[in-house]
């Protein structure tokens, strides 16, 4: 039977409710922060272009080394003063190798993007960086379990149309040899893919731990990895470099990298990876303006159209927050032990039989898989917890977890 008292919201009502979200200051805070990051990224690319194309003393890895040292000096020192499970030594023992892997990807992404500036134009680097968007979309679904609504798909489509306007503008630069430009474009594509991977893992880290832990371990391991790679690959250039004319550029470049890494962590915590990459699209317009002023790029009316579409897509995306699919056993890295025992006792009262408790909280693909797990566990006592290897989550949800703790807080029917 249809309830006549149930309100029926039409399409116009839904649009009105969504647009009302733009009146909230918190939404505009995230939009403004995204544009601030876009301007910083424009400055990073411009400074990197000067550092790598206008001098013979090129250090693609070495120019990012001060940035990691700044992170280490501030955030790693912060971690060193922590005590208990949130302390530096405890974190390194629990999941240090995971951060080491992330830092290797981050260092190589920066190196590839810096090297690309030696072979291709600043505009090509900005455009090819858009490849990070589909990679970030796919990884957000697979790794983070993000569910996109129709409004988010519409926002991404509008932004990509804006990218198409830039491509249609057909910016040409005849100063660079075609073969070398192809090498630069390939390096840029590789760097963009790695950058998308880093941002997804960065979001995964800060949402499961905290920003200080991520930045502290990034600074520590990033300094080690970039320092070793610089000594192995760029030692001769490092020794012969004078840096008289580029010390100010290098300092500004490192400061911009530090700010981008710090504020992007805050943005990812609030909005997510896809929103970050969409916000950075406006950096294409800012870079083109810089190119017109500094590198004699030609102006095209489609630049304004591209910028308008990109910002419109950002506004649309900000209307609705993305949701995540239920993940089952989500890891809390700092569980409240007392709360965990209370929760276990409550489960035992509701489900006195171990087998029924196991059926309640393990999701499997088939009855045969359930029988296999039941036979593997045998009889489970009330104080036992389920090993993480039997969780039906994706592998990535435990990327920053510890295999000896489990704190899934479930709402039983």
UniProtKB/TrEMBL annotation:
It is a multi-pass membrane protein. The keyword Transmembrane applies. It comes from the Eukaryota. Pfam families: SLC35F. GO terms for cellular component: membrane. InterPro entries: SLC35_F1/F2/F6, SLC35F_Transporter. It is found in: Membrane. One of its GO terms (molecular function) is transmembrane transporter activity. The chain crosses the membrane at residues 27-48, 68-84, 96-113, 125-146, 153-171, 183-202, 214-233, 248-269, 276-295, 301-319. The keyword Transmembrane helix applies. Belongs to the SLC35F solute transporter family. PANTHER family: DUF914-RELATED, SOLUTE CARRIER FAMILY 35 MEMBER F2. Putative solute transporter. This is Solute carrier family 35 member F2. It comes from Ceutorhynchus assimilis. The lineage of its organism: Eukaryota, Metazoa, Ecdysozoa, Arthropoda, Hexapoda.
